[in-house]
Design brief:
The complex is a heterodimer of chains A (169) and B (107). Chain A is 75% helix and 0% strand. Chain A has 169 residues and is mostly helical. Chain A folds into two domains: 117 residues, NADH-ubiquinone/plastoquinone oxidoreductase chain 6, subunit NuoJ (Four Helix Bundle (Hemerythrin (Met), subunit A)); 42 residues. The radius of gyration of chain A is 21 Å and the shape is globular. Chain A starts with a helix and ends in a 7-residue tail after the last helix. Chain B has 107 residues and is an all-alpha fold. Chain B has a single domain, classed as Helix Hairpins. Classes of the chains: A mainly alpha (169), B mainly alpha (107).
């Protein structure tokens, strides 16, 4: 099946990008791995019949948020010897991975009780920009307006934080 | 394989675990920020998969709201990183201890 193959390739890219992100010492390489991971997740959205979210993921996440992150990383211009040294990074990751296994098993057991249903890509206009907009402006109007206030508050907050303060002694 | 809900949930849980491990194991504040983004994305995958399972568009709207919140978080978090780097000249989270209780035994 072609869809299975696409899903497996996307999952490999997503997991590989994530693992690379937490293992690289340089934040620049981590951000580039994260872009690979987020692009692959956009493909997973497309497989789940959400073409509008696929576009939003590529444009907004990989295009805007991570680009802002890359801009800040380049702006700070961190040298190699200024990076924090993390001697027992691998040991912490290994111990944490072992401790997370029961939690993951619990979640997967809970989802395993769901009856099996075909999840093939829906051909009709499910999840495209028309049905998405209808759902957004009929059912989720108040959260949408609250999001605009949140974004304004975040904008003002970011300006206030990053403003140069007057140094007094 | 791409036809079952469980494979999408498995992918999302693996990514969530990777993000969690990044938060607890790294000291570079940039990596911690990226791990938080990865966890938000994993939860988005679960939302959209359940939305596809129930053939409803509502979870996709929730996922887009989560993306908008992530954008707001990015602005505030990155400006905080700039301020912290300007003050401490480091990215090590072990040094950001202004709010920690003072250790009087060393004085």
């Amino acid at each position: 099946m072609v869809v299975d193959l696409i899903f497996i390739v996307l999952a490999i890219f997503a997991i590989g990008g994530g693992v690379g992100m937490i293992l690289f010492a340089q934040p620049m390489y981590s951000a580039l791995s994260l872009i690979v991971c987020l692009m692959a997740l956009g493909g997973v959205f497309a497989l789940l019949s959400a073409p509008f979210l696929f576009m939003v993921q590529i444009i907004l996440y990989a295009g805007a948020i991570i680009t802002l992150l890359l801009f800040i990383i380049m702006f700070l211009n961190i040298k190699n010897d200024e990076l924090p040294d993390e001697p027992n990074k691998i040991v912490t990751i290994a111990i944490g991975a072992v401790l997370l296994i029961p939690f993951n098993i619990l979640i997967l057991k809970a989802f395993n009780t769901f009856p099996d249903k075909p999840m093939n890509i829906l051909g009709n206009d499910f999840g495209d920009i028309h049905s998405f907009g209808i759902e957004l402006f009929r059912g989720w109007l108040v959260p949408f307006e609250l999001i605009s206030m949140l974004l304004l508050a975040a904008l003002v907050g970011a300006v206030v934080y990053a403003r140069k303060e007057k140094i007094d002694g | 394989m791409a036809d079952s809900l469980l494979s999408y949930i498995t992918l999302a849980m693996i990514l969530f675990s990777i993000g969690f491990l990044g938060v607890i194991s790294r000291k570079n504040i940039f990596i911690i920020y990226m791990s938080i983004e990865l966890m938000l994305n994993a939860i988005n995958i679960i939302f959209v998969a359940l939305g596809r399972y129930n053939e409803s568009t509502g979870p996709q709207v929730i996922a887009m709201i989560v993306i908008a919140i992530a954008a707001a978080e990015a602005a505030v978090f990155l400006s905080l990183i700039v301020v912290l780097y300007r003050k401490k000249k480091s990215l090590n989270t072990d040094l950001f201890t202004s709010l920690k209780q003072k250790d009087f035994s060393n004085e």
